[in-house]
Amino acid sequence: MIVRRMFAAALTVLIGFAASAVPADVPDPEADRVALKRLLEARFPGIPADDYVLGAFMFSADARRHYEDIMSFPPFEVDIDRGKRLWETPFRDGRTYADCLPDGGRMLAGHYPRYDESEGRLITFEMLLNRCRVAGGEPEYRYDDMQTMGVLTAYARTLSDGMRMDIRVESPGALARYEAGKAIFHRRIGQMNFSCANCHVDNAGRVMRMETISPVVGQATHFPVFRGGEALYTIHARFTRCMEQVRAQPFPMGSDAFKDLEYFHAYLSNGLPLKASVYRR
Questions:
Q1: Per CATH, domain 48-73+164-280 is 1.20.1260.10
Q2: Which helix (H) or strand (E) holds 207?
């Protein structure tokens, strides 16, 4: 028990401050990412880095086979097809999302969230899609509407499958947003007094409520997900559910707080391949 507590404390120190790499008062996103990567490699030796995109399925050969069987004939393919129809439907000006986005929207999602220096704020992939809509004369979709933004994102992010996550933190403004997201990730909240890090760093790989907890590394690569093969969750919807489970009041989907959290969260998966719209339990 004492050893377990000491190990959990070491986890928090390593990811919270990357103390072995730089002084604690000097923010360094790459030191954070590398410290966490090394910690997980030590805790789960022999698991290839790219397998982290599988989430908790990476811990069990049987679970992985179950996942692969479902992904061979995904029951949620109809929802992805609905997203494709939205993607291909012309705006009022006659253009489509593919016309609006660089390279037709392919190999793009892994660059988002991105800090826009001219605007002084984060731009998420969903915001990018809404900007195309507005430019084409259409109203924005709501972040929390799974029947529109949800299914559209479920299809659009598959166009980036295989690209490596490439989130940049290259300016003081970007670093401020990264640090804000990091603070949310480590903040204990709710009646259960849990943080994101408590589950997805300290207890990654352990079983809680009959489910194996996935590590934070790799999580951002596979959203949106279909839980149970049916319920569509964007990454902000999943953040919302996590906050509800610890009995905290969730931030609104699309809020600056969730964007900051997504930015930090995505950065930790830099270098891993994207695989969107997948099955999760």
A1: no
A2: strand 207-208
Burial grade of 119 (CB within 10 A; 0-12, 13-18, 19 or more): exposed
Residues 6+ apart with CB under 8 A from 266: 112, 113, 165, 167, 220
The encoded tokens of residue 54 equal: 């599988």
Given 100, 132, 196, 242, the catalytic residue: 242
Q: pTM to 2 decimals?
A: 0.91
Same-fold call for 48-73+164-280 versus 81-160:
yes
**What radius of gyration, in Å, describes the C-alpha atoms of the chain?**
19
90-112 pLDDT, tens per residue? 999 999 999 999 999 999 999 99
Domain limits of the chain?
48-73+164-280, 81-160
Catalytic annotation present for 100: no
Architecture of domain 81-160: Orthogonal Bundle (1.10)
118 contacts 128 by C-beta, under 8 angstroms: no
Q: Buried b vs exposed e over 171-196: b needs ≥16 C-beta within 10 Å? A: eebbeebbbbbbebbbeebbeeebbb
How confident is the model over 150-190, as pLDDT tens digits?
999 999 999 999 999 999 999 999 999 999 999 999 999 99
